[in-house]
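Example A, followed by Example B.
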Amino acid sequence: MTVPNLFFIGGMRCGSTTIYLLLSQHPEIFMAEIKEPMFWYAEALRQKGEPVEGRVNGRFLTRRPYEELFAGAGAVKWAGEASHYIYHSEVPGLISSHSPDARILIAVRDPAERMFSEYLFRVRSGYFSGSFEDFVTQDARLDPGQGFTEVSERSRLGKGLQAHLLQSWIDVFGMERLHFINFDDLKSRPAEVAQQIYRFLEVDPDFSPAIVHTQRGGVPRSALLMRLLNLPKARIRRFVPRILREKLRAQIYSKVLDSPKVAPGTWQALRRYYAADIAQLQELTGQDLRPWSLRPAPGN
C-alpha cells in the first residue's frame, strides 16, 4: 500500500480546488481522485469512541476504501489528498503517527472575505436562503456597539480563526513541514504560487500546469438553472476530464451568479472579531496580511 505523505488541509473557501489541480497535474505528485475523503477525521472520531455517522459523510471513511484511493500512485515522490482537516485538532497527531515525514499545505485567506465566500457558496448550492447578516448570526449575536457576542462553538465565525486552528498542526509537524499559500497570491499570481509549492515539495519547479480558478459562489439569477448545475456529477465524470469540467464550471458560474452588497457595519464587526487572530497569523507565517483590513465591504 502507498501511504499518503502529502496533505492539503484547507481552509474552506481558500482555493482548495485550484490548489488540488495544481498538485494533481504534476508528474511527480499523485493526488487521490476524490477530494475531501475525510478519512482521518472519521478515524479520530472512532478512536474517541464517538459516532461517525451524522458527523461526516462519504465512501472513504474506512481504511480499505481510503487505501484504494492511492492504488495507482506507483513510485511517485508524493501521494496526497485534499481534505479540510484544518478544523479538527485531533487529526495532525493521527497523520503523523502513520506518515511522520508528511508535508502539509495550508491556504489562508482574509477571514471576512472567506466568510462571505462561504455564504455565497451555500446560497449557490441551495443550503441557505437568507441574507449575509442572517448567515453570520446563526450561532452568534451581533451587537451594533460591541460587535459579535455569544459566539457558540457551532458558529461559522470560528472557521476564520486561522492562527488558532493552525496551532495543533505546528505543534505536531513544526513550521519546516508546513507551507502556507495566501489566497490573494493564488488569485493574482497562480503560476508563481505553483512554483513555490513545487519547490517546497522538491519536485520540478519548471513544470507548467493549467491554471483554473473555480468554485465561485453567488446568488443565482436562475434558480432552475442552478438546480440543474447542482445535480450529481457522477455521469459527467465518466466522460469529461476533470480539468475541462472545472474550466466549464467556472465559465458557467461567471455568467449566472451575482454578488449582493454587505452592510458596512457587519463588515466592520467581522474586521474587529478577526483582528487579533490575523495579527497572530501574520507573525506565524511571516506574510504581510495588513491589506486584509483595508478592503471595503462587498458591493460598497
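Example B, a separate protein, is given below in the same form.
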Amino acid sequence: MIKFFRKIRQKLLTENKLSKYLIYAIGEIILVVIGILIALSINNWNEDRNNRKLITVYKKSLIENFVQDSIVIANGINIINSEITKIEQFEKRVSNSQEPLDTILKIARFEYEFRISINNHYEKDTYEVLNSTGHIGLFTNKLTKKLKELNSLQNRAIFNANQSFESYRNNLSNYSHKYPFSFRNNLIKNNTKAASVVWNNISKSEHATEFNALIIAKGDVYRLALGYLPDLKTKTNELLSELRKHK
C-alpha cells in the first residue's frame, strides 16, 4: 500500500503536476490521521470494555465480602447483647444474695464463660487488591470515597477490638494464676479433685475482687464494641445495597 502511494506521488512530480501533488499529499495526510483516530477509538473501546469487565468482577467480589462481613457483624452484636444480659443478671443475683461471696464463687466456677466473643477480622482482600493495583480508580468518585471510608471504619474497629481484647486477656491471665477454670492445656481443670482442693483454700473476698475485675474488663470490651459495630453494620449494608443496584 505504501509503495502504491509512493508511485502515485512520484508520477505526479515527474509530470510537474505540483498542484495535484499537493492536493494528493494533503489527502494522504488526512487519511493517515483518520486511520490513527480510528485505531485510537478501537483501542479506547477495547480498554473501556475490559474495564467494564473488571468492574463487574470486582463488584461481585466486593458484594461477597460485604455479605460475609454483614453477617459476622450482626451475629457479633447479638452475641454481645446476650453476654451483656448475662452479666447484668449476675450483678442482680450478687446484689440480692444473702451470701454474695458464695454467689460470686458459684458463678465463677460453674456459670461464667471465660472466653470472649469479639471480631477483629473483615473480608478486605478485594479492597486491598483494588488499592494495590490502582483499579479502585475504575469506580466512580462517590463509590471510591465510600469504599475508603468503610475501610477506615474497619481498621479502627480492628484496632479497638485488639486493644480491648488485650486488656481482658491481661485480667484473665492474672486470674488464671490463682484460680482454676476450664481451658485446654490446664492441669487444674474446673470440676476436678485438684480444682476442689484449690477452691477450698482460697480467700473468698480476694477472689470476689479479682473476678469482679474480670467481669468489668469483659463488660468494657463489649460496651466499646457496641460503640462502633452498629455504625459499621449500617455502612456495610449501605455500600452493599449500592453495589447490588449497579451490578
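On Example B: The chain has a mean pLDDT of 83.
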